[in-house]
Amino acid sequence: MTTLEAPAKPVSPAKFVPGDFKSDLKPIWCPGCGDFGVVTAITRALANIARPPHEIAFVSGIGCSSRIPGYTTAYGFNTVHGRSLPIAQGIKLANPELLVLVASGDGDGFSIGGGHVAHAVRRNIDITYIVMDNQIYGLTKGQLSPTSSRGRKTVTSSFGSLEDPVNPLLYVMGYGASFVAQGTPADMTGLAKIIEEGIRFPGFAFINVQSPCVTYGLEDQQLKAHKTNMQSLEAMGHDASDRAKATELAREYGTKLYTGVLYRNPNPPTTYGQGVAERQEALKKLAVPRHEILNRFKPTH
Amino acid sequence: MSEDLIIGIAGSGGDGVVSAGESLITAAALEGYHCVMTKSFGSQIRGGEASCRLRLATRPVLNPNGPLDVAVALNWDDFRKFGAELAVEAATIVIYESSTGVAPDKLPLQGVKPTVVFSVPITEMAAQHAGTDKAKNIVIAGLLAGWFGIGRESMLAGIRKKFAKKGATVVEGNVRAFQAGLDFAAANPLPEDRRLSAPQSGGETKLLTDGNDMCAAAAIFAGCTFFGGYPITPSTEIMQFLEREIWKYGGTVLQAEDEIAGIGAVVGASFAGQKAMTATSGPGMSLKTEMLGLASLAELPLVCVNVQRGGPSTGMPTKAEQSDLYQAAFSAHGDCLRPVLAPTSVGDIFGVTVEAFNLAEYYQTPVIVLSDQEIAQRKETVDPIDTSKFEIINRRQPSGAELTNYARFKLTESGISPISHPGMVGGNYLAAGIEHSESGRPTASGEMHARMNEKRFNKFNPLKSRRDLFAVEGDPEAPIAMVSWGSVAGVAREALRLAQAEGLQVKLLVPQLLYPVAETVYQDFFASVQRGLFIEQSHQAQLYRIVRMHVDLPAQVKPFAKSGSNPILPTEVLEKLREMVVAIQSGQPQPEAIED
Predict the structure, then answer these.
(1) Would you call B406 an interface residue with chain A, using a CB distance cutoff of 8 Å?
(2) Quick one: residue B565, left, alpha or beta (phi over 0 = left, psi -120 to 50 = alpha)?
(3) A-contacting residues of B 413-472, CB under 8 Å?
(4) Bridge partners, residue A183, by sequence
(5) Spatial distance between the Cα atoms of B216 and B179, rounded to a whole number of angstroms
(6) Same-domain status, B161 and B275
(7) What residues contact A151, with CB distance under 8 A and at least 6 apart?
(8) Per the CB < 8 Å rule, is A291 touching B276?
(9) A74: chain B residues, CB-CB within 8 Å
(10) What's the rounded Cα separation, in Å, for the pair B20 and B178?
(11) Which end of chain A has the lower number of beta carbons within 10 A, N or C?
(12) Range of the domain at B82
């Protein structure tokens, strides 16, 4: 085509299929693991988002769920247990153009990693935090998790857990999160949808995925039970902009399995990144050439 | 005339003790003198006791330690709280506030009778001439300018500038207060002329700053665009300097929620391709250990500054020590190696920090800079630094060809694999703390693990030949040697100066590269040596022990090590050197090498 010819149609944006985001690394997960569904849902969401894999940074900690980045074609980073949030935030601050995803589990995210949640929420850096919550420690073979129920018997609670579980939904709602959603691989369409919405949401987005452990999970925690028990928030007519109502529903974590968007702030606060960009722009003109930085140590009274 | 004066000033917080010191050191810098100033406070946030020590000289000041030539006490209770930090001897010229009511021959100093003592109505002079006793520091400046010939013109100019905004009356009042100090000194001359001679280097204006600010400035120069950290004494000023500056260069400073998150963000920023740094002290290093190991396994560049303080645990936050070397060299679990560099002064922390970034980028590794509280927080005059001398090194990125079937951890001859970062087409890879194959995929293969360990260690081999990271001073064939590092190297350098003045045949090795141990450098240095000392500020003599792990030292090379907050004096070291000379001359037999 020469420059004198007009194109026949407008050039369409890059088209991706979910397979473009799936790597050929064979997962270590047990057959039937909920995480298979999660990675599929993620690849579907990413296909719709249509950012190329090399522009995506997928960070995780340690656990079965944290293996996910390696099963995608994105730049992946399996970090250390409980510390994926600070690392992911560093990546996003260093290069705001990247799409940054974080995968975690109930232990990685709410036990050892629990201290970082508040700050990731309030800092509101534009990353998407997907936690695969299965109320048990799978990778290390069956220990108690912070979301395990009181009385639960596991290899580290032979006589029953003496603790009440953490409520991940209330946790993040309490810290003021602007996007909170929950899903299950039992509803793949719904799961892919909330992941996509979370990624698109400007700011910190939290997605709690009830992703059953087939090996150490309880009978009533498996996908079959999810199919029966799950209740679509949308179908219930839930108004996701109602923070109070969302908090009320969040309290029912553990007894109810609500799926969909629990809360989406209709007036999302500016992201940390926006603040940084504005500041960098405003202060740029004050920069002295780097090699002249020592001039500020010239003595004056 | 004097070539070298150590001045100590103490009083209550709010007395202007530190202001007086700042005026003096600024004047010294402007007039081309060499000066080092340290400050010391009680533990209260406000009020409490305050002091500063200045060592002013006509040639480079190697270390600030030593008994006072001049002591200025605004009140004796506060002065005495500083104990040995402000050591008064018989020869010390004592200047003190007369309204303390203390008689000049009855100074409350244990077992010391200074012969030259001035009781000065400092507060009264301030009130009388400037109308406020806040001008005490101005009076002190005048007294010192008068007796010791320091910076009269500079200080007057400083006074005029400082108070300009407050109007002519205030300016003139302070000028009169300064003059009152000069007049008192003129009317009460010292028994002998102790004014400073002209600076030996020709009086060129020097830079003036402290170690933390210089370190931060070096990071900017080196191209750092990300700092993540957490406040901890005595490192916080590094974060604060960068927080004022880095946005101008398109960078970010994140005061994270804790030490781990601070370095975590740095690891992330490095993964994303940025030059990134964190800074902390001992307790923070302990927390950061796991992240350092992750960065080592993932072969990610980063700079981690540890401004050492008294340890262990909470230790002594406002005192220097050199007891974190073991931790720097050995911290993270598993077989891994992180280079450790140590600056010796405010002047050289610039170059050391730039080098740290270069090593981090080149070797794709965390690099630890072991500064200490003294270097960090002392103000020092620094000869102007020619920044054009410094090379800036960036990480080796993959070429187009290397991005086809890109293997992030490719086993190369040098052990260094080209490193991509998110955003780079074709450079996608999985970074991990888990052991991996060349592609980055997790592995538990013993063979691959052994090869990767070899890669991660062998890549550092060229570092052990970096003789430019070692300074050897004195007679190269000397049978008596010293090794010293960090701020204590200044003490050793002064001891060398004193030894050479006595004609002793001594040499000194100052390593900036502490780890990995450059075996051949030490072997060559110790080839001529019969007796020697490793001089350092730690109970365990940590560098001595680490070097001995790798190098057979002559049996009579021993540690001279003290716990922090126990100043090591050049004269003490000189005494040991003299003993060694005598021992060699008297032909004492060399005992068998022993493990002590």
Answers:
(1) no
(2) left
(3) 421-434, 441-442
(4) A209
(5) 39
(6) no
(7) A160, A161
(8) no
(9) 428
(10) 11
(11) N
(12) 4-187
Which residue is it, tokens 């630890």?
B368
pLDDT (average), residues B56-78: 94
Same domain flag for B169 and B215: no
For B541, phi then psi, to 5°, come to 55, 60
Q: Give which of B341, B347, B304, B343 is closest to B325, Cα–Cα.
A: B341
Give chain B positions within 8 Å (CB) of A286.
248
Nearest to A283 among B159, B247, B388 (CB): B247
- H/E stretch holding A246 reads helix A243-250
**What confidence tens digit (pLDDT) does each residue in A216-264 have?**
999 999 999 999 999 999 999 999 999 999 999 999 999 999 999 999 9
Q: Give the tens place of pLDDT for each residue, B276-321.
A: 999 999 999 999 999 999 999 999 999 999 999 999 999 999 899 9
- The pLDDT of B196-214, averaged and rounded, is 91
**Residues in chain B, how many?**
596
> How many CA atoms, within 13 angstroms, populate the side-chain half-sphere of residue A219?
0
Which H or E run contains B368? strand B366-372
Give the nearest partner residue to A115 out of B249, B258, B276, using CB atoms: B258
Domain assignment present for residue B404? The answer is no
User: Using CA atoms, how far apart are residues B203 and B153, in angstroms rounded to an integer?
Assistant: 14
- From chain B, the residues in CB contact with A87 under 8 A are 264-265, 267-268, 271
Calculate mean pLDDT across residues B176-205.
92
Which of B339, B366, B389 is the last residue in one of the domains? B389
State the count of interchain CB pairs (< 8 A) between A and B.
198
Contacting residues of B for A24, CB less than 8 Å apart? none
Correct CATH for A18-297 of 3.40.50.970, 3.40.50.620, 1.10.10.410, 3.40.50.300: 3.40.50.970
Cβ B271 vs Cβ B421: under 8 Å: yes
B149 and B12 part of one domain: yes
For chain A, what are the domain ranges?
Answer: 18-297
Is B223 within 8 Å of chain A by CB? yes
CA dihedral B130, B133, B139, B140 (to 10 degrees): -160
From B357, B389, B421, the end of a domain falls on: B389
How much is the pLDDT for A1?
38
Residue B36 backbone dihedrals phi, psi, to 5 degrees: -125, 135
Residues of B in contact with A280 (CB under 8 A): 247-248, 250-252
Helix (H, G, I), strand (E, B) or coil at A122: helix
Q: Is B228 on the interface with A (CB under 8 A)?
A: yes
User: For chain B, how many structural domains are there in total?
Assistant: 3
CA–CA distance, A36 with A38 (Å, rounded to integer): 5
User: Residue B261: pLDDT above 90?
Assistant: yes
Helix, strand, coil percentages, rounded to 5, for chain B: 40, 20, 40
| Per-residue pLDDT reduced to its tens digit, B241-259 | 999 999 999 999 999 999 9
* Interchain contact, A293 vs B262, CB within 8 Å: no
From the list A87, A115, A294, the residue facing B265 with the nearest CB is A87
Determine contact, residues A223/A50, Cβ cutoff 8 Å.
no
Residue B477: CATH number of its domain:
3.40.50.920
A147-to-A38, A132, A170, A184, A273 alpha-carbon distances in Å: 19, 11, 12, 16, 32
Q: Which residues contact A82 (CB under 8 A, 6 or more apart)?
A: A61, A62, A108, A109, A111, A112, A113, A114, A116
For residue B594, the model assigns a pLDDT of: 35
Task: Confirm whether B407 is domain-assigned.
Answer: no
Q: Which residues of chain A have pLDDT under 70?
A: 1-13
If asked whether residues B228 and B134 sit together in one domain, one would say no
CB–CB of A53 and B428 under 8 A? yes
* Interatomic CA distance for residues B5 and A292, integer angstroms: 32
